[in-house]
Design brief:
The complex is a heterodimer of chains A (507) and B (970). The relative contact order of chain A is 0.14. In chain A, helix 14 packs antiparallel against helix 15 and helix 14 packs antiparallel against helix 16. Chain A has 18 helices and nine strands. Helices cover 39% and strands 5% of the residues of chain A. The longest helix of chain A is centred in the N-terminal third of the chain and has 28 residues. Chain A is mainly alpha-helical and 507 residues long. Chain B is mainly beta and 970 residues long. Chain B has a domain of 70 residues: Immunoglobulin-like (Sandwich). In chain B, the strands form 13 sheets. Chain B has a 22-stranded antiparallel beta barrel. A five-stranded mixed sheet of chain B has the order 10-15-16-13-14. A four-stranded antiparallel sheet of chain B has the order 3-2-5-6, with no helix packed on it. The longest helix of chain B is centred in the N-terminal third of the chain and has 11 residues. Chain B starts with a strand and ends with a strand. The chains are: A mainly alpha (507), B mainly beta (970). At the A-B interface, strand 1, helix 1, helix 2, helix 5 and strand 3 of A face strand 29, strand 33, strand 34, strand 35 and strand 36 of B.
């Protein structure tokens, strides 16, 4: 009877068997992408990837969005969830559940990617007699896993700075990873992206949803644009180089109608370089687009126009964003997607949904007005555009203006005016194209797309008094806060679990 | 002279088979089924001796009476002459461990559904938190505090020798809920490691041994019928603003839009959803012997309604026990079969929270037939139910039909053979099974406001368990008179296998809907991955019991256990124990001390293990696994959606959790056992806790992992005293009291010790998303509250958002939280008393917990003006506490909401009357009147101070129950 002690699972597979069959590889790769979209193996919740925090709340995209938008002028939230109000107050601590959740999602994606990268090395494929097309596919998958790991590490660089470092050389166990400096991690991510640039499918040659060459190039361009902040060394020329590579491949093109970028059929758009995909029936989560479409709906907003069954009455914006536009109706700039009826421009009470204008950017209806596929109206089909061509245009322009070589201001002006033309906004002249103008233009074009905190830090306006917005630092008129807030703290739980780690200064 | 009379037990029941003897002669009689006897030719000077096994004998001088009625009290010492222990029985005097036994005559009475409620408050060291008001609900049982953090803290339950699975069956509240309490004869608790260690790997939280009633050889056919009718009601309502108070608040604080929402009704929503409920419990048992086969067969039917409308629990149970003896009693066969079918209708308990928060100025019914005719808050832009508003509380109840049926059967065959050539040696084989199956449906019509946007719900669920047991042991018992010794040696083998399965069903609508042009479909989501898990336990065990001069006893046990849950290198564990006892009373210097009837010292030490990870989702924590995603968690590549494969985190080296326990005790008895009891002191230290802790980020495929880390310690003192202050002819009074101090502390929780360990947040609360209120930290008890220190003004009113800045950084953040009190009681008490006077009997059970705190989540989540006034298109009610605090926004983390929840509760008050013979002397009738949950004395401001994990959030209130019972024996 002692053999009876060797029980094995009935429905799960063990790692010994999963990699023996090459047809499983794509399903393991799909999981790595899915880490960005769903919270676990059951949609919308259940069998979570990480625990200790509510699943929907801690979804990767939802947290990335909250950490990038809530401490800025672009968004306020009315809820009482844990410490969510601390983001407006710029007063979070190392015990913060949201920050810990983001950190854990990042390192979950890193660890899961490491596992796949380790199991798909050429030696391992050979040892399993996987050859031919199956081996070639596995190599592409492996490059994509390296892209996803680089993406996760890029978020770590941006949000946390100096973090634990693990690669495929570290098998899962109970070891304590070493801490890597922000600069070293930058170099590692840079080298990874350069190494896989040509292993990935050519731009727009991959299946929709999978990372291609342009995705790696865009990520590099974003890193180089912020290199001064991340490493202390400006890399604007590299930013121009990689932005140009994306643009000049001509694989991606601006979506003719700005609004269509954020609708239920945005998967058909030629502008989105790297989406995080959602589906009303098959990719369900309470985070992701479910959050981004339900949470901004409340007050008298007509829910049918959003393709959902009801709003969550949480997210609005401050007048600082509203004032970026010449008028709120969208008549002079279609990107001004505000809902004002019954809403006041001023925010006297953050917890009241009707204080502050609402934003109608993300919706679960198609460009032809059809509602999304979920009959219940809970889960949208809309995908989150993590990278899109418009951002690459703006990176190019800013990098050129900041002294990057290999590009020119005239081309930059064309790109910026192409975005404005699409929005129905008047073109600007060459003299108006300044870095300050570009910060505003990024806000008009990319607001609520999880970029704002990084932009304000790059422009030196996140913490100090040079730029104040309503409720910055938790007071209505706004106030300056300590400079160390440009980095989030390493979560207290990991400082305890891993004594190798040192906290970011100030925390 | 012919003397007649009846003999009764202290609870007033007739005592058949008692012996009445003329003292100094061998003449005597036995009582019949009604407890009556008749003894002719008795001289007036004679003394009659009344005796019965387990009762204190009484001697009565006849005098010139012709009728002598006697009540025989339980003799606690004699009753426990033989106690049930693991794998056999022991003479009470040979017991070295801490064992509490209680038999059917001492059980709690009344409308009792689950067996553990029979002994609530009766046993020191055993804390039984009664179930909420949900019909058929199960209790939480803790023996000497929980010894684990994430592994199970439930004791092992052994029914007629078969260790059963602790896992609840889908649809049944706990493993015991399928046993009819009326079938239970004895309830024995092995509290310390030296008595429990024979169960090795499953004994860390103590062991409960249950034996069921059996027929006896030579029994005449005896039929016993009992029926009990009960009415229950809620003694207390949750405090909410009245309709007038509510109008005042809205008119004072609301804007024009909000004031316009006020209705004109005065609705007490709790009156709507709660109401008195009727229950009945009927049992029929037949005991006797068919030829040479003693048997007992019983059937029971209970139907219990809850005070929350629509909740109902029904159980049909049957049991059959056969105890034939063969080969001149050398082969004893014990066959037990039990079966039950439970039908549950679960009321939607969200209705309780909804009744607390629903606007009292709105009517129950809207006057039109939309949404089932119930008033609902609507979204003005769509006319459909407002998604953020609470739903009509009564609609929640009547528009959901959540039903389950559970079938369970437990059975075993025990063969006990005493060798012909060596009668001191026995071989015992026990083959048992425990299978159960449940099916459920959960239906909400498409018209219900509750799931209107979804099109209602029509879901199925199912589950099954299949557990098998094979145990075999030898026992050798011999009195070695020449060396004044007695040895009792047992050695055996145990094999158990446990399978749990849950198929997956699609999630369906109850009707096809089409809203806002969204597509119509009957399926909400396709079936996910089915669930099946299996684990196996193997064990070999031995016990030596050695008694010298009948007063020095040594017990040593050793068990070696293996579990399939751990890797081959880790799966075997060794669990030894040693116990000694010394009966001082039997020493020459105390032998003649008349007042002292017993004095015994006991000392025990043992190691027990824990591998019960039943609250985790699988039985393979050491294996690297890949899990397939459900159809609702796929990822899109191109136009194809892929079900994903996820690598799971694992700990290849996971191993046994180990609890070392020491116990020192004194058993005492005075005045022929009229005062008796024990004092036990214990310490349990658990190391290599199976705990789920954060892993270093990036080092594993998860952020929290189940691993062996940390230590936990429970220290305590138990005190029991049982007294019989009055014992006279026809009058008897028993008073029993027990007290337990228990201190629980986490002594380590880290792989790498680090100062400033922030601990692990636990204790999810209602309000916001993801908020927690408790923490596990080194140096503190488990489930310590983790709160901000409220600052009050001069008149003692808490100031909104003003807290002590503990870290002095000038800001109030989560880092200013402090550890404050715990949900675990420091002291718990039980007291029972039973009085018998001629045909009357009366008794009560009191129970109290002290030093336990409760987070009043009902208040923290409802006592803020934000609950009333919001910008979301509806009004909500609040707790009147808001009028005191004036809080606008809920202050979830304020220690203001952590309240002292010490209490004293009268669990039970009972009256009985014995009518004696009825139906022309063929039967005996007894009637009883019971009240349960008679009163609670507490300072706690919520509806009930007793909540298992310390967070009071709209508990289904425990009702007060009055029952009338009739017992008929013939």
């Amino acid at each position: 009877c002692v053999q009876d002690l060797d029980r094995t699972p009935a429905f799960d597979v063990t790692s010994a068997t999963v990699y023996a069959d090459p047809s499983n590889y794509k399903s393991v790769l799909a999981k790595l992408y899915a880490v960005l979209a769903v919270s676990g193996q059951q949609g919308p919740a259940g069998k979570p990837d990480i625990s200790g925090i509510d699943e929907g709340t801690s979804n990767y995209i939802r947290l990335l969005w909250c950490l990038q938008e809530l401490p800025t002028d672009e968004a306020v939230i009315g809820w009482n969830d844990q410490t969510i109000q601390d983001f407006h107050n710029l007063r979070w601590t190392s015990s913060d559940g949201f920050i810990t959740g983001m950190y854990n999602r990042i390192f979950y994606l890193v660890a899961a990617s490491n596992e796949f990268i380790r199991e798909t090395s050429d030696e391992k494929l050979a040892s399993r007699n996987i050859t031919g097309q199956a081996a070639a596919d596995a190599r592409t998958y492996r490059a994509e896993a390296r892209f996803l790991r680089a993406l996760a590490y890029s978020h770590a660089i941006d949000l946390f700075g100096s973090v634990p470092f693990v690669t495929e050389a570290d098998a899962p166990g109970s070891f304590l990873p070493r801490q890597i400096s922000r600069t070293e991690l930058f170099s590692y991510v840079e080298s990874e992206l350069k190494a896989i640039e040509n292993e990935l499918a050519a731009s727009r040659a991959a299946e929709y949803g999978r990372a291609d060459r342009a995705a790696a190039q865009t990520l590099l361009a974003k890193l180089y644009l912020n290199a001064q902040v991340y490493t202390g060394t400006a890399r604007y020329t590299d930013a121009v180089t990689y932005a140009s590579r994306v643009i000049q491949a001509n694989a991606y093109a601006l979506e003719p109608n700005y609004l269509n970028l954020f609708l239920a059929d945005n998967n058909t758009s030629r502008e989105i370089i790297f989406p995080v995909t959602f589906d009303g029936l098959r990719t369900q989560t309470y985070g992701g687009m479910t959050f981004l479409i339900h949470a901004p709906v409340g007050g008298s907003m007509p829910v049918a126009q959003f393709g959902i069954n009801g709003g969550w009455g949480g997210l609005r914006t401050t007048k600082a964003l509203v004032n970026q536009f010449p008028d709120v109706t969208g008549a002079t700039d279609k990107r001004a997607l505000f809902y004002t009826q019954g809403q006041s421009l001023e925010i006297n009470d953050i917890t009241q949904f009707t204080d502050g204008y609402a934003i109608t950017k993300f919706r679960n209806v198609t460009s032809t007005g059809r509602a999304g596929s979920d009959p219940s109206g809970n889960f949208p089909d809309t995908d989150f555009p993590l990278f899109r061509l418009a951002e690459v245009y703006l990176i190019y322009a800013e990098a050129v203006l900041r002294g990057g070589t290999g590009g020119d201001a005239a081309t930059a002006l064309t790109y910026v005016n192409a975005l404005r033309a699409r929005a129905g906004a008047p073109a600007i002249t060459a003299s108006a194209l300044t870095t300050d103008f570009l910060l505003g233009e990024r806000s008009r074009e990319l607001y609520w797309e999880a970029k704002r905190r990084t932009d304000l830090i790059r422009y030196g306006r996140f913490t100090n008094a040079t730029y104040l917005w309503p409720w910055k630092g938790g007071v209505k008129e706004g106030r300056a806060v300590e400079d160390f807030r440009t980095l989030y703290p390493i979560p207290a739980s990991d400082l305890v679990a891993n004594p190798n780690l040192k906290q970011n200064p100030g925390y | 002279l012919t003397i007649t009379g009846t003999v009764k037990e202290s609870d007033g029941n007739a005592l058949p088979g008692a012996t009445v003897q003329l003292k100094g002669t061998n003449r005597g009689a036995q009582t019949d089924v009604e407890g009556a006897y008749s003894l002719p030719n008795v001289p007036t000077s004679a003394t009659l001796v009344f005796s019965f096994i387990g009762k204190t004998a009484q001697e009565i001088v006849v005098g010139n009476r012709t009728t002598v009625d006697v009540t025989l009290a339980d003799d606690s010492k004699a009753l426990q002459e033989v106690v049930v222990v693991g794998y056999g029985t022991q003479r009470r005097q040979d017991v070295t461990g801490s064992i509490a036994a209680i038999s059917s005559s001492e059980f709690q009475r009344g409308n009792i559904v689950n067996p553990e409620q029979l002994v609530a408050g009766k046993l020191a060291g055993v804390s039984i938190t009664p179930p909420s008001g949900q019909p058929g609900g199960g209790s939480q049982i803790r023996i000497r505090g929980g010894s684990s953090l994430n592994a199970s803290n439930d004791p092992l339950i052994v029914i007629d020798g078969v260790p059963v699975d602790n896992n609840g069956v889908t649809g049944a509240s706990n493993a015991l809920s399928l046993i009819n309490p009326q079938d239970i004869e004895t309830f024995t608790v092995l509290k310390d490691a030296s008595s429990a260690a024979i169960y090795g790997s499953r004994a860390a939280n103590g062991v409960i041994l249950i034996t069921t009633k059996k027929g006896r050889a030579g029994d005449k056919t005896h039929v016993s019928f009992s029926t009990l009718g009960s009415v229950s009601y809620n003694p207390k309502q949750l405090p909410v603003l009245s309709a007038d108070q509510f109008r005042e608040v809205v008119n004072r604080l609301g804007n024009a839009n909000q004031r316009a929402l006020l209705g004109s009704a005065n609705t007490n929503w709790q009156d709507q959803i709660f109401g008195p409920a009727l229950s009945s419990d009927n049992n029929l048992a037949v005991t006797g012997a068919y030829r040479h086969i003693p048997y007992r067969a019983s059937v029971g039917y209970i139907s219990q309604n809850g005070t929350l409308k629509t909740s109902n629990f029904q159980r049909v149970s049957g049991s059959l026990g056969l105890t034939p003896r063969f080969l001149n009693d050398h082969l004893r066969v014990d066959i037990n079969l039990k079966g039950s079918i439970i039908n549950n209708r679960f009321a939607d308990q969200a209705a309780i929270g909804a009744a607390v928060s629903f606007d009292p100025t709105q009517p129950v019914y809207s006057g039109n037939d939309k949404y089932g005719g119930y008033f609902e808050w609507l979204d003005p832009t769509t006319g459909r139910p407002n998604q953020l508003a609470p739903r009509n509380p009564l609609g929640l109840l009547y528009q959901r039909q959540d039903r389950t049926e559970v079938q369970r059967s437990i059975g075993n065959v025990q063969l006990d053979y005493r060798f012909h050539f060596l009668p001191e040696l026995r071989a015992n084989l026990n083959l048992g099974y425990d299978i159960s199956k449940s099916t459920g449906t959960n239906f909400v019509p498409a018209t219900a406001g509750l799931l209107f946007n979804q099109g209602g719900q029509n879901n199925q669920s199912a589950g099954s368990r299949n557990n098998k047991t094979l145990e075999f042991y030898f026992n050798y018992t011999k009195d070695l008179r020449s060396v004044r010794s007695r040895v009792d040696v047992t050695a055996g083998y145990s094999y158990q296998d446990f399978i749990r399965e849950n198929p997956s069903f699609p999630s369906l609508r109850s009707g096809s809907i089409q809203i806002d042009g969204r597509p119509a479909s009957d399926t909400i989501s396709a079936a996910g991955v089915a669930f099946r898990t299996q684990y196996t336990l193997l064990g070999i065990f031995g016990r030596l019991n050695y008694t010298f001069r009948d007063r020095y006893v040594l017990t040593a046990t050793l068990r070696r256990d293996a579990t399939s849950r751990f890797a081959p290198d880790q799966r075997w564990g060794t669990f030894p124990s040693l116990g000694v006892s010394w009966s001082l009373k039997d020493e020459p210097f105390l032998k003649d001390t008349k007042a002292l009837s017993a004095l015994k010292l006991r000392l025990g030490y043992g190691v027990t293990g824990q591998q019960d990870l039943s609250n985790l989702s699988n039985d393979y924590p050491y294996l690297p696994r890949y899990t397939i995603s459900d159809p609702t968690a796929q990822y899109q590549f191109g136009n194809t959606f892929y079900r994903t494969l996820r690598a799971e985190g694992y700990d290849a080296n996971i191993k046994w959790e180990e609890t070392q326990a020491i116990n020192a005790a004194v058993d005492y008895a005075f005045f022929n056992g009229r005062i008796s009891g024990s004092i036990d002191v214990y310490r349990k230290t658990t190391k290599d806790l199976l705990a789920t802790i954060p892993v270093a980020a990036g080092s594993n495929l998860t952020n929290y992992i189940l691993t062996n880390v940390g230590n936990l310690r429970n220290t305590g003192v138990e005190f029991t005293i049982n007294t019989t202050p009055i014992q006279r002819e026809g009058l008897n009074l028993d008073v029993n009291f027990n007290a337990t101090f228990n201190k629980n502390e986490i002594t380590n929780l880290l792989k790498v010790p680090t100062p400033n360990d922030p601990g692990i947040l636990v204790g999810a609360i209602s309000g916001g998303t993801g908020n927690t209120i408790q923490i596990q930290t080194v140096g503190y008890p488990t489930n310590t509250f983790y709160v901000l220190r409220q600052v009050y003004n001069e008149s003692g009113v808490p100031l909104e958002g003003v807290y002590e800045d503990r870290n002095g950084d000038g800001q109030i953040t989560v880092d200013d939280r402090v550890r404050y009190q715990t949900a675990n009681p420091r002291l718990f008490l039980g007291m029972t008393s039973q009085l018998t006077y001629r045909n009357f009997s009366a008794g009560f059970t009191l129970r109290g917990n002290f030093g336990n705190y409760l987070y009043n989540n009902v208040r923290s989540n409802n006592a803020a003006y934000r609950n009333v006034i919001n910008s979301l298109g509806y009004l909500g009610n609040a707790s009147p506490n808001v009028l005191t605090t004036g809080f606008v926004i809920n202050q979830y983390f304020s220690d203001y909401f952590v309240e002292n929840a010490s209490f004293v509760r009268m669990d039970n008050l009972n009256l009985g009357y014995n009518f004696g013979k009825v139906f022309g002397n063929t039967g005996a009738l007894r009637a009883s009147l019971n009240a349960q949950n008679v009163f609670v004395i507490t300072k706690y401001t919520g509806v009930d101070p007793e909540v298992a994990n310390g967070i009071d959030n709209n508990l289904y209130p425990r009702p007060r129950i009055f029952s009338l019972g009739l017992n008929l024996d013939f």
